[in-house]
TrEMBL record:
Pathway participation: Amino-acid biosynthesis; L-histidine biosynthesis; L-histidine from 5-phospho-alpha-D-ribose 1-diphosphate: step 8/9
PANTHER family: HISTIDINOL PHOSPHATASE-RELATED, HISTIDINOL-PHOSPHATASE
Organism of this sequence: Bacillus smithii 7_3_47FAA
Reaction catalysis annotation: L-histidinol phosphate + H2O = L-histidinol + phosphate
Name of the protein described by the UniProt record: Histidinol-phosphatase
Molecular function terms from GO: histidinol-phosphatase activity
Length: 275
């Protein structure tokens, strides 16, 4: 079954106004049989978005409308394409209880969800690592080096996997190498293979899956999926499910990155965990 498990919508404050119908019809034309709309959930109550545009998460006042609208499209296309109601939930260190409360309220209404790290904590401040290359450079200055930034990111991903977020916590971990988004502009001179191995082991132990995200392939400072193909292959060999996600923020992004990912290799006998 061809699946895209990571698609954004008109409810994304930093996306486009492309309609649900355009996403769905394009997905059908590309041969997808199952899709999940994973709009950015509202940020935890009390957390102040530190991005310049303050648009990292959905407006809290729209969450009910979002779920209702996806539910209607799900019914309309039943038997044509399987549409899942989902969210991309931010793990923000220090806001675990607020996130748990949100998931306890809305989790029962969801079919699917992703837990992602976008914000890194340093002292009493949080920094969005993927907003722009310019802002990433400032984060590097704050943390002291590219290597320390990477280390904090991977430590935070491990914390997200271990966090007690209640019975409705997302079972898929989002773009686990997102910190590499600007790697060609800010090269890292240290291997973090040991931390990647710890992340994969934790994902396996908890029976979680990974978001195999094609968006990085087309980012000029990245040029690889999240996670990279070598890590994806290692995860597949461990029996960790890899769920393709376009991370589309506009209709034309659906299917992005797939040609540079390792689906054919895996489907040819290395392990059939990629969908």
């Amino acid at each position: 079954m061809r699946v895209d498990g990571h698609i954004h919508t008109p409810y994304c404050p930093h996306g486009t106004n492309d309609s649900f119908e355009s996403y769905i019809e394009t997905a059908i034309s590309l041969g997808f049989e199952k899709i999940t709309f994973t709009e950015h959930a509202p940020l935890p109550d009390g957390f102040i978005d530190t991005t310049p545009t303050k648009d990292s998460g959905m407006d809290p006042g729209q969450i009910d409308d979002y779920i209702e609208e996806v539910s209607e499209w799900k019914k309309k296309y039943k038997g044509i394409i399987d549409i899942q109601i989902g969210l991309e939930v931010d793990y923000i260190e220090g806001y675990e209880q607020k996130t748990k409360e949100f998931l306890n309220r809305y989790g029962p209404l969801l079919d699917d969800a992703i837990l992602s790290v976008h914000f890194l904590k340093k002292g009493n401040e949080w920094y969005c690592l993927d907003y722009s290359a310019e802002l990433f450079g400032k984060i590097v200055d704050v943390f002291g080096s590219v290597e320390k930034t990477y280390e904090c990111y991977y430590e935070t991903v491990l914390k997200s996997i271990a966090a007690d977020l209640g019975p409705y916590r997302p079972a898929r971990i989002g773009h686990v190498t997102l910190v590499r988004k600007f790697q060609n502009k800010f090269p890292c001179r240290k291997s973090f293979d040991h931390m990647i191995e710890s992340i994969l082991s934790a994902v396996k132990k908890n029976s979680f899956s990974l978001d195999y995200n094609g968006a990085g392939v087309h980012k000029p400072d990245c040029l690889e999926p999240y996670p990279s193909n070598d890590i994806a292959l290692k995860a597949a060999e461990m029996g960790i499910p890899l769920i393709y996600g376009s991370d589309a923020h506009q209709t034309k992004d659906l299917g992005q990155g797939r040609k540079k990912m390792i689906f054919s290799l895996l489907e040819d006998g290395s392990g059939k965990t990629v969908k």
